Amino acid sequence: MATFTVWSFDTPGGAEVASGVLRDAASEGLIKIVDRAIVTWPEGAKKPTTRHTHEDEWRGTGWGAFWGLLFGALFFVPVIGVAAGAALGAIHKSMEAVGLNKDQLDRIRAQVTEGTSALFAVTEDGNLDRVGERFHGLHGELIATNLTDAERQLLLETFD
Predict the structure, then answer these.
(1) I need a surface site. Which of 15, 65, 94, 106 has the fewest CB within 10 A?
(2) Is 40:146 a contact under the CB 8 Å cutoff?
(3) Radius of gyration of the chain (CA)
(4) Among residues 38, 42, 6, 8, which one has the least CA distance to residue 20?
(5) CA-to-CA separations, 150 to 27, 41, 104, 144, 145, in angstroms, rounded
(6) pTM of the prediction?
(7) Per UniProt, which keywords does this protein have (predicted)?
(8) What is the residue-level pLDDT of the chain in tens, covering all 160 positions?
(9) SS3 letters for 37-56?
(10) Are 22 and 36 in contact (CB under 8 A)?
(11) Which of these, 107, 40, 121, lies nearest to 74 by C-alpha position?
């Protein structure tokens, strides 16, 4: 099963560093990255920048559409206002299909703010103990996942 996780970092460059660590772990066969995206929000910027990494060119178009929909729902549609209410409802419904509910979307939106960054990752077949070792000291916080409560707790224990 694919695991969707969102990690926030208290610096604009934190997610980029974590993305490199994840990529290195994948090159060692410790985890399979299905796809990932990075959101960076530098101090003084009015909105964040997003970058989709295109792990698999064959699937890249589909994931690009997903990331666009997700980031639009998180960072760009809310500023449009009430007129976008129906569209926002449809977006939330689409996100629930991948395991993200409205509360999680709200939590992501609240924690990814100016001066921070976030790593959005879709992974499979991870050796959590060995991957978790590499994430120690990165000061990331898991803010959303499609894992069950038990799986989430194991992930937090491993990466903390």
Answers:
(1) 65
(2) no
(3) 15
(4) 38
(5) 28, 32, 17, 14, 12
(6) 0.77
(7) Membrane, Transmembrane, Transmembrane helix
(8) 678 888 999 999 999 999 999 999 999 999 998 888 999 999 999 889 888 876 555 444 456 666 776 776 677 655 555 455 555 565 556 566 556 677 888 888 889 999 999 998 888 888 877 888 888 888 888 887 775 666 556 555 655 5
(9) EEEEECCCCCCCEEEECCCC
(10) yes
(11) 107
Q: Which of 111, 74, 76 is nearest to 95 (CA)?
A: 74
Q: If you search the block for the tokens 């990814």, which residue do you land on?
A: 112
For residue 1, give the H/E element and its range.
none
Question: What DSSP string describes 57-120?
Answer: HHHHHHHHHHHHHHHIIIIIGGGT-GGGHHHHHHHHHHHHTTT--HHHHHHHHHHS-TTEEEEE
In the numeric block, which tokens belong to residue 70? Answer: 């997700």
Cα–Cα distances in Å, from 68 out to 28, 59, 71, 76, 159?
Answer: 30, 14, 5, 10, 28
Give the relative orientation of helices 85-96 and 57-71 as an angle to the nearest 10 degrees.
130
Tell me, what amino acid is at 8?
Answer: S
CB 7 within 8 A of CB 158: no
